[in-house]
Amino acid sequence: MSTLKYHITSVALALLLTVPLFGENNRQRVSPDCNLRGATYMNPVIHADYSDPDVAASADGKTFYMTASSFQCVPGLPILKSDDLVNWSIVNYALPEVTPHEFYDSAPRHGKGVWAPCIRLHSGEYYIYWGDPDFGVFMIKTKDPEGKWSDPVLVKKGKGIIDPTPFWDEDGKAYLANGWAGSRAGFNSVITISEMNPEGTAVISQPRIVYDGNDGVNHTVEGPKMYKRNGYYYMFAPAGGVAKGWQLVMRSKDIYGPYESRIVMAQGNSDINGPHQGAWVTTDTGEDWFLHFQDLGAYGRIINLNPMEWCEDWPVIGDDKDGDGCGDPVRKWKKPVVSGNVIPDNSSSPSLLYQWHGNYNDLFGFPLPEGLMRIYGHKLSEDFINFWEVPNLWLQKFPAREFTLTSKVKISAKATSEGVSSGIIVMGWDYARLGLVKKGDDFQVVFTSCKDAEQNGKEENREIAVIPPSRAYPAGLYPNLECDLWLRVKVDKDGMCEFLYSTDGRKFLSAGHFKARAGKWIGAKVGFYSVTPASTSERGWIDILTSETEVK
User: Fold this and answer.
1) What percent of the chain lies above the pLDDT cut of 90?
2) Residue 434 has what pLDDT?
3) Disulfide: which of 59, 128, 363, 457 matches 452 by Cβ 3.0-4.6 Å?
């Protein structure tokens, strides 16, 4: 079994914190190494949580840009790049922070924010539309997807409007199709279309229903993507639910319908469940492909690539062995034929993998001149229950079924900052963390777990060991106590996590085990934290000096 190691550098981190990112060297591969060489590829092409993917080809068809849901995590709207639809690198984020600020700055809004974006190239500019189920449809644009994007424009205000897709017709008219969230609107399983102004900045008509999945057949239809081919208007949309659904395609000669529908890909005899929401892409050599996600629980919604062909103006996605017009997802297939070169294995900016768990502010922490990041202790509330309230978690997606994250850290506390805690965390609806807690003149190694965090589940703590400070020196009114530590999380193929620590970087001691669980609409994530009790005036902090991820 091959392994891939990547390291984070302080230079790369500084680039991350000054979004946007520019240049060919600012990228981090997210695709498995096995797909770099050979004439075939293996699914998934990205084994990481990039849910609700959408893709736009460049004007010459040689480069592909993908974006995905980012919810409350920032920076948001990741921009991934590929030359062959198989090997992908993350090169930018389009959204530095989630708006409106009065809502998203006050606390981490789990599962809210950026839902199911759509990226399109129109008149020389790239557009991204996304739905915020609590506020409406937003849009940003740019001429360079790897550069700076515009500030968000609220295209349509309202609750429950999700999964928007813009469409510009040959006559210059613009339209917006979207789904509806039952949790906000009180109904779902319908697709509506509204007209927009030609600039795509505002909806100018009332929505009209063009497809209703409340027929007992194609329930939970959502995530439409709109296209036009051979005089037909098409909407590609998943139905049947995230984990067990199928790909539905609707077509009509009139944009407002009526639309006829057909299931064009389902799990069938494959081991790829779903398959769910994605994007139709045509290469510069004329081949058609479909990128979509597959729900893997704690690992999130990973990305698969399937071949696509046309038969009597209907798409067929996957491997249609019985010729019924509905394909099964493929595990292994011949690579797309493209004229460009495959993106090389360039790991200069792995810090692009990390996001904050809520809108960033300066009190979260700063890049270090020697090292990566300093995270200051977030002040916990007076009625603290668990980490569901903590926004300054610095986290990355699970990058594979099996991996190990090892980091050298320096944990600091003032002599008077009793109870401050810093360390490493696997975060989801359930979470576990391993860190040091300041107690008296020493640090305690404490393993903490919590079930059902959103439902106010309480933390359970287990004291593992006592470690004396590595250094104590004067700093202002009170001395600083510092402790050097190596922290490690090993994740196996079933999402079982083992937390370990070391005082010398060589001998690691096991501190506890934990079964990872997905967060709210996102997969489990791993990274770092620092918190300060409400009763303590002086904040502690953690310096992340090195970080290495080994993927099996």
Assistant:
1) 85
2) 98
3) 457
